Amino acid sequence: MGLASVYLELPFIRFGRRCWLQDLVVTSSHRSRGVGGLLLDAATDWARQRGCTHLELASGAGRKDAHRFYLSQDMAEGRVFTRWMGS
């Protein structure tokens, strides 16, 4: 049905402790049924219980449906820059 994985990061001087949402996945047959919102709420509660000031995630530029979902869940849109390092 769905999965969310989150982890704590080191505290930031500017924002305090943050929680990173590494994965939020809902099987296609269960999308638009509230599963993603429940998972996001559970991840937020988990982070709040651990003293986090905010929850962040990164999402690829082409993931328009995911971005609509995050915006509908009152998440602020920002930018994440990535440097890939080859072997």
Can you give a write-up of this model?
This protein has one domain (2-72): 3-Layer(aba) Sandwich (Aminopeptidase), CATH 3.40.630.30. The protein contains two helices and three strands, in the order E-E-H-E-H. The chain has helices at residues 35-49, 64-72; strands spanning 2-8, 18-26, 54-56. It starts with a strand and ends in a 15-residue tail after the last helix.
Major β-sheet strand ordering: 1-2-3
> How far apart lie the N and C ends?
36 Å
Tell me the count of domains: 1
Structural class: alpha+beta
Q: Could you tell me the mean pLDDT?
A: 90
The parts where pLDDT drops under 50 for at least 5 residues are none
- H/E series: EEHEH
Strand content: 15-25%
Query: How many distinct helices?
Result: 2
The name CATH uses for the topology is Aminopeptidase
Helicity, as a percent range: 25-40%
Radius of gyration: 14 Å
Based on Cα principal axes, name the global outline. Answer: globular
Strand count: 3
Specify the CATH homologous superfamily. Gcn5-related N-acetyltransferase (GNAT)
Q: In CATH terms, what is the architecture?
A: 3-Layer(aba) Sandwich
Task: Describe the structure in brief.
By secondary structure, the protein is of the alpha+beta class.
